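2.7 Reproducibility. Because tokenized structures are sensitive to small changes in the input, we list the exact sequence used for Dihydrofolate reductase family protein, including any N-terminal residues retained from the expression construct. No trimming or masking was applied before prediction.
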Amino acid sequence: MKEGYSQGYVFMAASLDGFVARGDNSLDWLMKYEVDENDNSFEEFTKKMDALVMGSGTYKTIVGFNQWPYKMHTYVMSRTLTQYDVPKELQKKVTVKNLKPKELMKFLYENDLKKIYIDGGKLVQSFISKGLISEITLTQIPILIGKGKRLFGELEKDIDLELISSKSMKFGFIQNHYQLIND
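Resulting structure tokens (single pass, no recycling of outputs):
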């Protein structure tokens, strides 16, 4: 853990071929599955988090849902969006920040927000490369979508992971929980 910075935690689903969304950010391939009423892993995960950070692409997808799905405060990292782009009903729940990953994690740490849920493929990649992710919970969905947005991109160096737990779930999902071993 980097001293003076909040730590990031990832909780995502990916197709078996490693995509988290289609090229247009669509999640239709994931939404076709029913909710598993016996799986409360996401709720348990979010109870432990102090805030959520997402990229603008993820935000634009989620803001189009019928209702805002998160209870925790959300920070949207964007170089193009401003607070004026956030709908009035979300102004108290969503804050737009034009900061680099380390700057944002330092800001959150200084505001006593230590455990941060990081969401969005490109954003996760940038936080991993900066050593700002502590754990990844990845649910593999048994579908091949062929192309789209990858969760993991090119890295400057290998990043070792330690498996904390693994479980099979309804619909053939496999959920793996890893701790990153950062230098």
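The CA atoms of residues 97 and 104 lie 8 Å apart.
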